[in-house]
Design brief:
Low-confidence stretches: 1-16, 26-30
CATH architecture of the largest domain: Alpha-Beta Barrel
Largest sheet: 8 strands, parallel, barrel
CATH superfamily of the largest domain: NADP-dependent oxidoreductase domain
Number of strands: 14
CATH topology of the largest domain: TIM Barrel
Distance between the termini: 41 Å
Radius of gyration: 22 Å
Strand order of the largest sheet: 5-8-9-10-11-12-13-14
Structural class: alpha/beta
Shape: globular
CATH class of the largest domain: Alpha Beta
């Protein structure tokens, strides 16, 4: 029997794997690779994913609304140059609606992949799962989502909470109907929790914050390699650390980049460092100009995995050294201080504490909030009881207890404390 639902044909009397395979084959056949220059890596089913992905969180806004004409021109330019992966989220104000209008107007939905995210922290019931998902489909003007992520899945406890709402059964139904083709999660947190999440479910892909400055923080290189070894495509966000690896480099780092005989920009060094690693599937970039799109596509078309020379690796290490040298606390993110008996994320705290001085307070506090209180078991610096266990293992000799107090004063402001109370009161995590 064949059922029709919002234009999507569903085979009712066949198993879910058959339906999923049929849907993926249909999409793959219709997916048009529009550029001979763009390079592609592959998902679990060996479908091509452009090495450069379009992050749709930062569309240009005017008077609080997305400039739809500008966003359309940028998306079409990216598609022309071979980009086929477009990422958004429920909480990216106006993004889903804009993408839906653009793809519908230009009749190009089946030429691209849409990645979207479930805001599980806003959902309290199985009915809430379905209501939110259907709203996303309406906004995107589509009947299916190619890559669907649990947004900001922080640790195993968070996933267990979702399981209690019936998330596994819900995912199975969505895959069987063809409304979700691939399921994954995005992540902010430490390596240990990330690896536990990778093992907790039969994921199709995942997304991590990763760049040469975060090589040993958050999921890090260890997490990247762990996921890839399990057969998971790994999508990368924050490749430029919100611009820090370009506009906010220390003066000496900028001088080194300008003097390098390759003529590469700071952004190009950051992108090439990522694509040099075969475990990286695609790199998201929040591109908001035609010039930026063309430049990033050029870099993606020229970069090969494993092409970095020893000198090039050494040069990126020099840039990292210059950045670390300018930091407030000389933490390398090695993790020898962990685990903390009170569950403080020590390397993560210092990473955001340093951001206050090397970048800006707003970015640092936002990131710290995401990684410490948006979880069932908080990891805040203020939980430190001064036992000193961490200091016994720190190879850098950092007075960790003292610096955690300093970090807490800077990072845990009134907004942070109010957000923490709201999360506990509303039981968002």
């Amino acid at each position: 029997m064949i059922l029709q639902k919002r234009g999507l044909y569903v085979l009712a009397n066949y198993n879910s794997e058959y339906i999923r395979e049929r849907m993926i084959n249909r999409l793959t056949n219709n997916l048009q690779i529009r550029s001979a220059n763009m390079q592609y890596r592959y998902d679990k089913e060996k479908n091509p994913v452009s090495m450069l992905a379009f992050g749709c969180m930062r569309f240009t806004k005017e008077n609080g609304k997305i400039n739809l004409e500008k966003a359309e021109a940028e998306i079409l330019e990216a598609m022309k140059l071979g980009v086929n992966y477009f990422d958004t989220a429920y909480i990216y104000s106006g993004s889903e609606e804009a993408m839906g209008k653009i793809f519908e107007k230009n009749h190009c939905r089946e030429q691209i992949y849409i990645a979207d995210k479930l805001p599980h922290y806003l959902i309290k019931s199985a009915a809430g799962l379905e209501k939110t998902f259907q709203e996303q489909l309406r906004r995107l003007r589509t009947t299916y989502i190619d890559f669907y992520l649990m947004h900001m899945l922080t640790n195993l406890e968070t996933w267990e909470k979702l399981k209690g709402l019936g998330i596994e059964e819900w995912i199975a139904k969505k895959k069987a109907s063809g409304e979700i083709l691939r399921i994954g999660f995005s992540y902010h947190g430490n390596t240990k929790d990330f690896c536990e999440l990778v093992d907790a479910y039969d994921w199709d892909f995942c997304m991590i914050q990763y760049n040469y400055l975060d090589e040993n923080s958050q999921a890090g290189r260890k997490g990247l390699q762990y996921a890839a070894a399990k057969g998971l495509p790994v999508m990368i966000m924050e490749p430029l650390r919100g611009g820090k690896l370009v506009n906010l480099l220390p003066k000496e780092a900028k001088r080194k980049v300008a003097a390098h005989p390759s003529g590469r920009s700071a952004a190009e060094w950051a992108f090439r460092w990522l694509w040099n690693q075969p475990e990286v599937t695609t790199v998201l970039s929040g591109m908001n100009s035609i010039e930026m799109i063309r430049e990033n596509c050029r870099i993606a078309s020229e970069t090969q995995a494993g092409a970095f020379t020893e000198d090039e690796i050494a040069f990126v290490n020099e840039l990292r050294h210059e950045i670390n040298h300018s930091m407030k606390v000389g933490c390398t993110g090695c993790g020898y201080c962990m685990p903390c008996p009170k569950n403080v994320d020590i390397p993560g705290t210092f990473s955001f504490y340093n951001l206050i001085y090397s970048e800006n307070k707003k970015t640092a506090r936002k990131g710290y909030m995401q990684c410490t209180i948006f979880r069932q078991t908080p990891t805040s610096a203020s939980q430190c009881v001064g036992c000193g266990k961490c200091e016994q293992h720190c190879p850098q000799g950092i007075p960790i207890r003292k610096e955690l107090k300093n970090a807490s004063k800077e990072l845990e402001n009134v907004t942070y404390k109010l957000a923490g109370k709201a999360i506990r009161l509303l039981k968002l995590w």
